[in-house]
Amino acid sequence: MNPATLAHRAASCKSGVSIGRVPLELGRRTDRKAPFKYSALARVWFSDTDAQGIVYYGRYLPYFDHARVEYHRHLGMSGIDLEGREFVMRASSVEYHAPARFDELLEVFVRLARIGGTSATYECAAYRSEDDALMVTAQLTLVLVDLDERRPVAIPDRFRERMLAFEGEDLEVAAPAG
Predict the structure, then answer these.
(1) Are 115 and 172 in contact (CB under 8 A)?
(2) Which pLDDT score is estimated for 112?
(3) 38-42, 85-89, 97-101 — which is least confidently predicted?
(4) Which domains does the chain have, with CATH numbers?
(5) Active site residues
(6) pTM for this predicted structure
């Protein structure tokens, strides 16, 4: 990665956390599981498990949120100014394929699959790193809302353009709202 790209990422990262001149990122670009282009690692903590010693089903959503935030950080969008607007969860669909256990390392893949006028739909897949076993898949739809009005608003062009530049032809793009 060239120095200008690294400088841009560091400047756009709201937290400003870095190691030397390289911004700290807890995920990575990957081509291991097409059409996914990004993944983040997550460790299963004891507090994530239930009485049987496996990950409680509700704990996968924070793993997916972690991967999605790192994905946005990678694209220089973790501190993007949405001018009084925020993405909120509209729908989630999760399918459980195998149980994860305490101290296992998961690689959580994330991608923006579809961007609509006011909504963005992400796909996620968590694999156990040790044997590459598929654990969980999910589809998450977020809607951009005006925080004062609590109503959906159009996704800004700069967000659409950056996502399209990264995802390319794998991203389904609907016409902008309005």
Answers:
(1) yes
(2) 97
(3) 85-89
(4) 27-173 (3.10.129.10)
(5) 50
(6) 0.84
What's the distance, CA 18 to chain centroid? 20
Residues contacting 62, CB < 8 A, separation 6+: none
Q: 62: cis peptide before it, omega within 30°?
A: no
Contact 103, 82 (CB under 8 A): no
DSSP sequence for 24-77: P-SEEE--SSTT--EEEEEE--GGGB-TTSBB-GGGHHHHHHHHHHHHHHHTT-
**114 SS3 class:** strand
Distance between CA atoms of 97 and 64, rounded to whole angstroms? 15
Residue 173 and residue 142: Cα distance in Å, rounded? 15
Tokens of 125: 């897949």
* Banded model confidence at residue 148, pLDDT cuts 50, 70, 90: very high
Q: Is the dihedral of CA 48, 38, 14, 173 positive or negative?
A: negative
Compute the distance between CA of residue 126 and CA of residue 144 in angstroms, rounded to an integer.
25
Paired sense of beta strands 151-152 and 133-146, if any = antiparallel
